[in-house]
Amino acid sequence: MSDETHIRRLTLTLTDREDGGLRISSADVPGMHLSGADPQRVWSMVAPAIMDLMQRNRGIRVTEVFLPAEEVSTSGPSPREVAAHARCATVMVVLEDS
């Protein structure tokens, strides 16, 4: 076993729903499709979903997921108010040493 840490950057697409909720998907994580009326709750499901889907669909064990906390901030104007309905977030994941 080596002491080297393997880190991968993943891009998530965050889309506002008409009901004020949030939809999250990622081309980097096959099967990643989260959606719900409560943006904070949806955001809280991202790390477990990444860990599970990377293991199931790619055979890669993710040991840690680092999420930017500000991505679903409820302060400030809604993206709908600034004519932007989708945005991207970058997350970093630590992969199990093989």
Topology:
Elements: E1 6-16, E2 22-25, E3 33-36, H1 39-44, H2 46-58, E4 62-66, E5 86-95
Antiparallel strand pairs: 1-2, 1-5, 2-3, 4-5
Could you provide a short overview of the structure?
The protein is of the alpha+beta class.
Could you list some keywords that capture this structure?
5 strands, Double Stranded RNA Binding Domain, alpha+beta, 98 residues, five-stranded antiparallel β-sheet
How many structural units, i.e. domains? 1
CATH class: Alpha Beta
Structural class estimated from helices and strands = alpha+beta
The protein's oligomeric status is: single chain
What is the averaged pLDDT score? 84
Tell me what the structure shows:
By secondary structure, the chain is an alpha+beta fold. It has one domain (6-95): Double Stranded RNA Binding Domain. It has two helices and five strands, in the order βββααββ. The chain has helices at residues 39-44, 46-58, and strands spanning 6-16, 22-25, 33-36, 62-66, 86-95. The chain has a five-stranded antiparallel beta sheet with strand order 3-2-1-5-4. The longest helix is centred in the middle third of the chain and has 13 residues, at 46-58. The chain is elongated and about 45 Å long.
